[in-house]
Write a structure and sequence with these properties.
By secondary structure, this protein is mainly α. It folds into 3 domains: 130 residues, no CATH class; 108 residues, Cytochrome Bc1 Complex, Chain D, domain 2 (Orthogonal Bundle), CATH 1.10.760; 115 residues, Cytochrome Bc1 Complex, Chain D, domain 2 (Orthogonal Bundle), CATH 1.10.760.10. The protein contains 17 helices and 5 strands. A hairpin with a 2-residue loop joins strand 1 and strand 2. The longest helix has 26 residues. It starts with 8 loop residues before the first helix and ends in a 5-residue tail after the last helix.
Protein backbone atom coordinates (compact mmCIF):
# COMPACT_ATOMS: atom_id res chain seq x y z
CA UNK A 1 0.00 0.00 0.00
CA UNK A 2 1.33 3.42 -0.97
CA UNK A 3 1.74 5.89 1.84
CA UNK A 4 -0.21 9.08 1.25
CA UNK A 5 1.96 12.25 1.47
CA UNK A 6 1.41 14.32 4.55
CA UNK A 7 -1.04 17.17 3.99
CA UNK A 8 0.75 20.21 2.73
CA UNK A 9 3.98 18.25 2.23
CA UNK A 10 4.39 19.22 -1.42
CA UNK A 11 3.66 22.88 -0.72
CA UNK A 12 6.12 22.85 2.17
CA UNK A 13 8.80 21.38 -0.10
CA UNK A 14 8.20 24.14 -2.65
CA UNK A 15 8.42 26.77 0.08
CA UNK A 16 11.70 25.30 1.33
CA UNK A 17 13.10 25.31 -2.21
CA UNK A 18 12.08 28.92 -2.71
CA UNK A 19 13.63 29.90 0.62
CA UNK A 20 16.84 28.13 -0.38
CA UNK A 21 16.95 29.96 -3.72
CA UNK A 22 16.27 33.27 -1.96
CA UNK A 23 19.03 32.57 0.56
CA UNK A 24 21.48 31.75 -2.22
CA UNK A 25 20.50 34.91 -4.11
CA UNK A 26 21.01 37.02 -0.99
CA UNK A 27 24.37 35.34 -0.43
CA UNK A 28 25.41 36.20 -4.00
CA UNK A 29 24.19 39.78 -3.61
CA UNK A 30 26.03 40.12 -0.31
CA UNK A 31 29.22 38.78 -1.84
CA UNK A 32 28.98 41.18 -4.79
CA UNK A 33 28.20 44.11 -2.52
CA UNK A 34 31.38 43.53 -0.54
CA UNK A 35 33.70 41.98 -3.11
CA UNK A 36 36.64 44.09 -4.16
CA UNK A 37 35.86 46.67 -1.52
CA UNK A 38 39.13 47.89 -0.15
CA UNK A 39 37.86 48.58 3.34
CA UNK A 40 39.08 51.71 5.04
CA UNK A 41 40.59 54.25 2.66
CA UNK A 42 43.69 56.25 3.31
CA UNK A 43 43.45 59.51 5.25
CA UNK A 44 41.16 62.02 3.56
CA UNK A 45 42.94 64.79 1.77
CA UNK A 46 44.73 65.44 -1.48
CA UNK A 47 46.32 62.97 -3.85
CA UNK A 48 49.95 61.95 -3.34
CA UNK A 49 52.42 64.77 -3.88
CA UNK A 50 53.72 63.06 -7.03
CA UNK A 51 50.32 63.41 -8.72
CA UNK A 52 50.33 66.32 -11.14
CA UNK A 53 47.22 68.48 -11.23
CA UNK A 54 48.27 69.80 -14.65
CA UNK A 55 48.45 66.28 -16.03
CA UNK A 56 45.16 65.50 -14.32
CA UNK A 57 43.50 68.41 -16.14
CA UNK A 58 44.57 66.83 -19.44
CA UNK A 59 43.30 63.40 -18.41
CA UNK A 60 39.85 64.58 -17.33
CA UNK A 61 39.54 66.25 -20.72
CA UNK A 62 40.38 62.97 -22.41
CA UNK A 63 37.65 61.36 -20.32
CA UNK A 64 35.24 64.19 -21.26
CA UNK A 65 34.22 64.23 -17.60
CA UNK A 66 32.91 67.79 -17.60
CA UNK A 67 30.30 66.97 -20.24
CA UNK A 68 28.29 65.00 -17.68
CA UNK A 69 29.37 66.60 -14.42
CA UNK A 70 28.41 70.16 -15.40
CA UNK A 71 24.74 70.99 -15.76
CA UNK A 72 23.66 73.21 -18.63
CA UNK A 73 24.01 76.74 -17.34
CA UNK A 74 25.42 75.49 -14.04
CA UNK A 75 28.74 75.87 -12.28
CA UNK A 76 31.63 73.81 -13.63
CA UNK A 77 31.96 70.35 -12.07
CA UNK A 78 29.02 70.89 -9.69
CA UNK A 79 26.94 68.07 -11.15
CA UNK A 80 23.19 67.98 -11.55
CA UNK A 81 23.04 67.13 -15.24
CA UNK A 82 20.26 64.65 -16.03
CA UNK A 83 21.34 61.52 -17.89
CA UNK A 84 18.34 59.73 -19.35
CA UNK A 85 18.49 55.93 -19.47
CA UNK A 86 15.93 53.25 -20.42
CA UNK A 87 15.50 52.65 -16.66
CA UNK A 88 14.96 56.24 -15.52
CA UNK A 89 17.09 59.32 -14.94
CA UNK A 90 20.52 59.38 -13.33
CA UNK A 91 21.95 62.71 -12.14
CA UNK A 92 25.68 63.39 -12.34
CA UNK A 93 27.36 64.10 -9.02
CA UNK A 94 29.23 67.11 -7.69
CA UNK A 95 32.99 66.71 -8.27
CA UNK A 96 34.12 69.99 -6.72
CA UNK A 97 36.04 69.98 -3.40
CA UNK A 98 32.92 70.97 -1.44
CA UNK A 99 33.12 68.93 1.82
CA UNK A 100 29.38 68.39 2.17
CA UNK A 101 28.23 67.61 -1.37
CA UNK A 102 31.41 67.10 -3.39
CA UNK A 103 34.79 65.41 -3.05
CA UNK A 104 36.02 67.51 -0.11
CA UNK A 105 36.18 64.53 2.27
CA UNK A 106 37.32 62.05 -0.34
CA UNK A 107 40.82 60.68 -0.59
CA UNK A 108 42.78 59.64 -3.65
CA UNK A 109 42.00 56.01 -2.76
CA UNK A 110 38.28 56.78 -2.58
CA UNK A 111 38.42 58.37 -6.02
CA UNK A 112 40.36 55.45 -7.49
CA UNK A 113 37.85 53.02 -5.98
CA UNK A 114 35.05 54.86 -7.79
CA UNK A 115 36.86 54.58 -11.11
CA UNK A 116 38.24 51.10 -10.62
CA UNK A 117 35.45 49.33 -8.68
CA UNK A 118 32.42 51.53 -9.35
CA UNK A 119 31.90 52.25 -5.64
CA UNK A 120 31.34 55.51 -3.83
CA UNK A 121 33.30 56.60 -0.76
CA UNK A 122 30.80 54.85 1.54
CA UNK A 123 30.94 51.60 -0.44
CA UNK A 124 27.65 52.21 -2.25
CA UNK A 125 27.51 50.73 -5.76
CA UNK A 126 27.48 53.31 -8.56
CA UNK A 127 25.27 53.13 -11.62
CA UNK A 128 27.07 52.33 -14.89
CA UNK A 129 25.79 55.55 -16.47
CA UNK A 130 29.11 56.54 -14.90
CA UNK A 131 31.30 54.47 -17.26
CA UNK A 132 33.35 52.61 -14.67
CA UNK A 133 33.20 49.45 -16.83
CA UNK A 134 35.68 51.42 -18.96
CA UNK A 135 37.36 53.51 -16.27
CA UNK A 136 38.35 50.35 -14.41
CA UNK A 137 41.17 50.18 -16.99
CA UNK A 138 42.62 53.51 -15.77
CA UNK A 139 45.88 53.20 -13.83
CA UNK A 140 46.18 54.33 -10.23
CA UNK A 141 48.74 56.91 -11.30
CA UNK A 142 46.33 58.53 -13.75
CA UNK A 143 43.48 58.34 -11.24
CA UNK A 144 45.60 60.17 -8.65
CA UNK A 145 46.46 62.89 -11.16
CA UNK A 146 42.79 63.37 -12.05
CA UNK A 147 41.90 63.62 -8.37
CA UNK A 148 44.71 66.13 -7.81
CA UNK A 149 43.25 68.34 -10.54
CA UNK A 150 39.69 68.12 -9.20
CA UNK A 151 40.99 69.25 -5.80
CA UNK A 152 42.03 72.54 -7.47
CA UNK A 153 38.67 73.55 -8.99
CA UNK A 154 36.45 76.01 -7.07
CA UNK A 155 34.24 74.36 -4.49
CA UNK A 156 30.52 74.68 -5.21
CA UNK A 157 27.94 74.00 -2.51
CA UNK A 158 25.36 72.22 -4.62
CA UNK A 159 23.52 69.17 -3.30
CA UNK A 160 23.47 66.05 -5.45
CA UNK A 161 20.15 65.25 -7.09
CA UNK A 162 18.55 61.91 -6.15
CA UNK A 163 18.28 59.51 -9.07
CA UNK A 164 14.83 58.83 -10.48
CA UNK A 165 14.95 55.18 -11.47
CA UNK A 166 12.12 52.69 -11.66
CA UNK A 167 11.96 49.77 -9.25
CA UNK A 168 13.80 47.36 -9.11
CA UNK A 169 16.56 49.24 -10.98
CA UNK A 170 16.63 51.75 -8.14
CA UNK A 171 17.84 49.12 -5.65
CA UNK A 172 21.40 48.24 -4.71
CA UNK A 173 20.46 44.55 -4.85
CA UNK A 174 19.46 44.78 -8.53
CA UNK A 175 22.63 46.70 -9.28
CA UNK A 176 24.68 44.07 -7.48
CA UNK A 177 23.16 41.34 -9.65
CA UNK A 178 23.88 43.40 -12.79
CA UNK A 179 27.50 43.76 -11.73
CA UNK A 180 27.80 40.06 -10.99
CA UNK A 181 26.66 39.35 -14.53
CA UNK A 182 28.42 42.07 -16.48
CA UNK A 183 31.22 43.83 -14.57
CA UNK A 184 34.74 42.77 -13.73
CA UNK A 185 37.26 45.25 -12.40
CA UNK A 186 40.71 45.22 -13.94
CA UNK A 187 43.52 47.57 -14.89
CA UNK A 188 44.79 47.76 -18.47
CA UNK A 189 47.61 45.36 -19.18
CA UNK A 190 49.82 46.13 -22.21
CA UNK A 191 49.95 43.59 -25.02
CA UNK A 192 53.60 42.51 -25.29
CA UNK A 193 53.24 41.66 -28.98
CA UNK A 194 52.10 45.20 -29.83
CA UNK A 195 54.03 48.45 -30.06
CA UNK A 196 54.12 51.03 -27.28
CA UNK A 197 52.09 53.36 -29.51
CA UNK A 198 49.40 50.73 -30.11
CA UNK A 199 49.20 50.00 -26.38
CA UNK A 200 48.87 53.68 -25.53
CA UNK A 201 46.05 53.98 -28.05
CA UNK A 202 44.32 50.89 -26.71
CA UNK A 203 44.54 52.25 -23.17
CA UNK A 204 42.97 55.57 -24.20
CA UNK A 205 40.23 54.07 -26.38
CA UNK A 206 39.23 51.38 -23.91
CA UNK A 207 39.68 53.36 -20.71
CA UNK A 208 39.45 57.13 -20.44
CA UNK A 209 38.03 57.54 -23.95
CA UNK A 210 35.29 54.97 -23.10
CA UNK A 211 34.52 54.68 -26.82
CA UNK A 212 32.64 51.42 -26.31
CA UNK A 213 30.07 53.24 -24.15
CA UNK A 214 28.52 54.37 -27.45
CA UNK A 215 30.07 52.17 -30.14
CA UNK A 216 28.95 48.83 -28.64
CA UNK A 217 25.46 47.34 -28.81
CA UNK A 218 23.68 46.78 -25.47
CA UNK A 219 21.15 44.24 -24.34
CA UNK A 220 17.84 44.85 -22.57
CA UNK A 221 19.67 45.41 -19.27
CA UNK A 222 21.98 48.05 -20.73
CA UNK A 223 25.02 45.77 -20.85
CA UNK A 224 27.21 44.26 -23.53
CA UNK A 225 28.75 40.82 -23.64
CA UNK A 226 31.97 42.46 -24.84
CA UNK A 227 32.48 46.11 -23.96
CA UNK A 228 35.51 46.30 -26.23
CA UNK A 229 34.18 45.04 -29.57
CA UNK A 230 33.36 48.55 -30.93
CA UNK A 231 31.00 47.00 -33.48
CA UNK A 232 28.42 49.78 -33.33
CA UNK A 233 25.09 50.30 -31.63
CA UNK A 234 22.15 52.65 -31.16
CA UNK A 235 22.84 55.09 -28.33
CA UNK A 236 20.07 54.63 -25.74
CA UNK A 237 17.62 57.53 -25.40
CA UNK A 238 19.39 59.61 -28.05
CA UNK A 239 18.37 57.76 -31.22
CA UNK A 240 21.78 58.28 -32.78
CA UNK A 241 23.58 55.27 -34.17
CA UNK A 242 27.26 55.02 -33.21
CA UNK A 243 28.67 53.17 -36.23
CA UNK A 244 31.07 50.26 -36.03
CA UNK A 245 34.71 51.31 -35.71
CA UNK A 246 35.76 47.88 -36.97
CA UNK A 247 33.85 47.84 -40.25
CA UNK A 248 34.91 49.56 -43.46
CA UNK A 249 31.23 49.69 -44.36
CA UNK A 250 30.51 51.93 -41.35
CA UNK A 251 33.18 53.98 -39.54
CA UNK A 252 36.28 51.80 -39.76
CA UNK A 253 39.47 53.65 -40.61
CA UNK A 254 41.69 50.67 -41.34
CA UNK A 255 42.39 51.80 -44.90
CA UNK A 256 42.71 55.52 -44.17
CA UNK A 257 46.03 57.35 -44.11
CA UNK A 258 47.05 57.72 -40.47
CA UNK A 259 47.11 61.52 -40.78
CA UNK A 260 43.43 61.56 -41.83
CA UNK A 261 42.41 59.61 -38.73
CA UNK A 262 44.45 61.93 -36.52
CA UNK A 263 42.89 64.96 -38.19
CA UNK A 264 39.36 63.65 -37.69
CA UNK A 265 40.04 63.15 -33.96
CA UNK A 266 41.58 66.60 -33.50
CA UNK A 267 39.49 68.75 -35.86
CA UNK A 268 36.28 66.81 -36.50
CA UNK A 269 36.72 66.81 -40.27
CA UNK A 270 38.80 65.49 -43.13
CA UNK A 271 38.40 65.92 -46.84
CA UNK A 272 36.05 62.93 -46.92
CA UNK A 273 34.34 62.84 -43.52
CA UNK A 274 32.82 65.10 -40.87
CA UNK A 275 31.62 64.18 -37.37
CA UNK A 276 28.12 65.19 -36.29
CA UNK A 277 25.79 64.58 -33.37
CA UNK A 278 27.20 63.08 -30.15
CA UNK A 279 30.63 62.54 -31.74
CA UNK A 280 30.84 66.26 -32.54
CA UNK A 281 30.42 66.93 -28.80
CA UNK A 282 33.21 64.45 -28.03
CA UNK A 283 35.60 66.13 -30.46
CA UNK A 284 34.59 69.59 -29.22
CA UNK A 285 35.14 68.84 -25.53
CA UNK A 286 37.70 66.06 -25.59
CA UNK A 287 39.65 64.72 -28.55
CA UNK A 288 40.58 68.07 -30.07
CA UNK A 289 42.76 68.55 -26.96
CA UNK A 290 44.74 65.36 -27.56
CA UNK A 291 48.47 65.77 -27.83
CA UNK A 292 49.88 64.86 -31.22
CA UNK A 293 51.39 61.71 -29.70
CA UNK A 294 48.14 60.55 -28.10
CA UNK A 295 46.12 61.31 -31.23
CA UNK A 296 48.54 59.19 -33.27
CA UNK A 297 48.36 56.43 -30.67
CA UNK A 298 44.55 56.32 -30.77
CA UNK A 299 44.60 56.41 -34.58
CA UNK A 300 47.13 53.57 -34.65
CA UNK A 301 44.94 51.41 -32.43
CA UNK A 302 41.72 52.21 -34.31
CA UNK A 303 43.33 51.45 -37.66
CA UNK A 304 44.55 48.09 -36.38
CA UNK A 305 41.12 46.89 -35.22
CA UNK A 306 40.28 43.53 -36.81
CA UNK A 307 37.57 43.94 -39.42
CA UNK A 308 34.24 42.76 -38.04
CA UNK A 309 32.54 42.45 -41.40
CA UNK A 310 33.35 43.08 -45.05
CA UNK A 311 31.74 45.95 -46.92
CA UNK A 312 28.50 44.65 -48.45
CA UNK A 313 28.25 44.51 -52.21
CA UNK A 314 25.88 47.16 -53.64
CA UNK A 315 22.40 45.88 -54.33
CA UNK A 316 21.46 45.64 -58.02
CA UNK A 317 19.69 48.78 -59.16
CA UNK A 318 16.60 46.76 -60.03
CA UNK A 319 16.37 45.53 -56.42
CA UNK A 320 15.81 49.07 -55.07
CA UNK A 321 12.11 49.68 -55.61
CA UNK A 322 10.89 53.28 -55.30
CA UNK A 323 7.47 54.47 -56.42
CA UNK A 324 7.34 57.15 -59.10
CA UNK A 325 5.52 59.48 -56.70
CA UNK A 326 8.16 59.11 -53.99
CA UNK A 327 10.99 59.50 -56.51
CA UNK A 328 9.50 62.73 -57.90
CA UNK A 329 8.86 64.15 -54.45
CA UNK A 330 12.34 63.30 -53.20
CA UNK A 331 14.03 64.82 -56.26
CA UNK A 332 11.97 67.99 -55.89
CA UNK A 333 12.80 68.42 -52.19
CA UNK A 334 16.47 67.79 -52.92
CA UNK A 335 16.57 70.44 -55.65
CA UNK A 336 14.83 72.99 -53.44
CA UNK A 337 16.63 72.36 -50.13
CA UNK A 338 19.86 70.40 -50.64
CA UNK A 339 21.45 70.87 -54.05
CA UNK A 340 22.77 74.36 -53.35
CA UNK A 341 25.27 72.95 -50.85
CA UNK A 342 25.60 69.27 -51.69
CA UNK A 343 25.57 69.68 -55.47
CA UNK A 344 23.16 68.62 -58.22
CA UNK A 345 24.76 65.19 -58.28
CA UNK A 346 25.62 64.82 -54.59
CA UNK A 347 29.24 65.77 -55.19
CA UNK A 348 29.45 68.21 -52.26
CA UNK A 349 32.04 70.96 -51.81
CA UNK A 350 35.42 69.84 -50.49
CA UNK A 351 36.25 71.42 -47.14
CA UNK A 352 32.70 72.68 -46.66
CA UNK A 353 29.84 70.31 -47.48
CA UNK A 354 30.37 66.54 -47.57
CA UNK A 355 29.58 64.57 -50.73
CA UNK A 356 26.48 62.39 -50.60
CA UNK A 357 27.37 60.19 -53.57
CA UNK A 358 29.27 57.16 -52.33
CA UNK A 359 29.13 58.38 -48.72
CA UNK A 360 29.04 55.34 -46.42
CA UNK A 361 27.16 57.31 -43.76
CA UNK A 362 24.38 57.84 -46.30
CA UNK A 363 23.99 54.18 -47.27
CA UNK A 364 24.20 52.67 -43.78
CA UNK A 365 21.40 50.16 -43.17
CA UNK A 366 20.56 52.07 -39.97
CA UNK A 367 19.07 55.41 -41.07
CA UNK A 368 18.58 57.00 -37.63
CA UNK A 369 21.44 59.47 -38.10
CA UNK A 370 20.12 60.69 -41.45
CA UNK A 371 16.72 61.41 -39.91
CA UNK A 372 18.36 63.20 -36.98
CA UNK A 373 20.47 65.40 -39.26
CA UNK A 374 17.62 66.39 -41.58
CA UNK A 375 15.23 67.22 -38.73
CA UNK A 376 17.65 68.62 -36.15
CA UNK A 377 20.48 69.89 -38.32
CA UNK A 378 24.09 68.81 -38.56
CA UNK A 379 26.73 70.84 -36.77
CA UNK A 380 30.41 69.87 -36.82
CA UNK A 381 32.50 70.96 -33.82
CA UNK A 382 34.39 74.25 -33.80
CA UNK A 383 38.01 73.28 -33.20
CA UNK A 384 41.39 74.94 -33.36
CA UNK A 385 42.06 73.17 -36.65
CA UNK A 386 38.61 74.01 -38.06
CA UNK A 387 37.37 77.05 -36.14
CA UNK A 388 34.51 77.99 -38.47
CA UNK A 389 32.89 74.76 -39.68
CA UNK A 390 30.03 74.77 -42.16
CA UNK A 391 26.81 73.41 -40.65
CA UNK A 392 23.43 72.24 -41.87
CA UNK A 393 20.25 73.93 -40.63
CA UNK A 394 17.36 71.94 -39.15
CA UNK A 395 14.39 71.24 -41.41
CA UNK A 396 11.93 70.07 -38.77
CA UNK A 397 9.69 73.12 -39.31
CA UNK A 398 9.94 72.98 -43.10
CA UNK A 399 9.60 69.32 -44.09
CA UNK A 400 6.96 66.83 -43.01
CA UNK A 401 7.62 63.13 -42.45
CA UNK A 402 6.75 62.26 -46.06
CA UNK A 403 9.19 64.90 -47.35
CA UNK A 404 11.98 63.62 -45.10
CA UNK A 405 11.39 60.02 -46.15
CA UNK A 406 11.28 60.96 -49.84
CA UNK A 407 14.42 63.10 -49.88
CA UNK A 408 16.40 60.51 -47.91
CA UNK A 409 15.20 57.83 -50.31
CA UNK A 410 16.34 60.03 -53.20
CA UNK A 411 19.78 60.48 -51.66
CA UNK A 412 20.15 56.76 -50.89
CA UNK A 413 19.17 55.66 -54.41
CA UNK A 414 20.87 58.28 -56.61
CA UNK A 415 24.36 58.87 -58.08
CA UNK A 416 25.34 55.23 -57.70
CA UNK A 417 23.98 54.88 -54.15
CA UNK A 418 21.89 51.70 -53.93
CA UNK A 419 20.55 51.54 -50.39
CA UNK A 420 17.08 50.68 -49.15
CA UNK A 421 14.41 53.40 -49.27
CA UNK A 422 13.28 55.25 -46.13
CA UNK A 423 9.59 55.18 -45.19
CA UNK A 424 7.49 57.63 -43.22
CA UNK A 425 7.28 55.01 -40.47
CA UNK A 426 11.10 54.91 -40.36
CA UNK A 427 11.15 58.67 -39.82
CA UNK A 428 8.55 58.54 -37.04
CA UNK A 429 10.23 55.57 -35.34
CA UNK A 430 13.78 56.87 -35.58
CA UNK A 431 13.11 60.40 -34.39
CA UNK A 432 11.20 58.93 -31.45
CA UNK A 433 8.92 61.95 -31.29
CA UNK A 434 11.82 64.11 -30.10
CA UNK A 435 11.31 66.73 -32.78
CA UNK A 436 7.57 66.94 -33.38
Amino acid sequence: MRQRPAPGGKAAAVRRALLLVAALALAVVGWVLHANYGGESDVAGGAPASASAERGAYLVRLGNCMACHTDRGGAAWAGGRAIDTPFGTVYASNLTPDPEHGLGRWSAADFWRALHHGRSRDGRLLYPAFPYPNYTEVTREDSDAMFAYLRTVPAVRRANMPHQLRWPYSTQAALAVWRALYFRSGEYRPEPAQSAQWNRGAYLVRGLGHCSACHTARNALGASSDMMDLSGGLIPMQNWYAPSLASDAEAGVGHWPLDDTVRLLRTGTTGAATVLGPMAEVVQSSTQHLTAQDAQAMATFLQALPASQPAPAPAPAAAVQVSARTAERGARVYRQQCAQCHGEHGEGVRGAYPPLAGNRAVILPVTANLVQVVLGGGFPPATEGNPRPFGMPPYVMLLDDADVAAVLTHIRTSWGNQAAPVTEFDVIRQCGGSFR
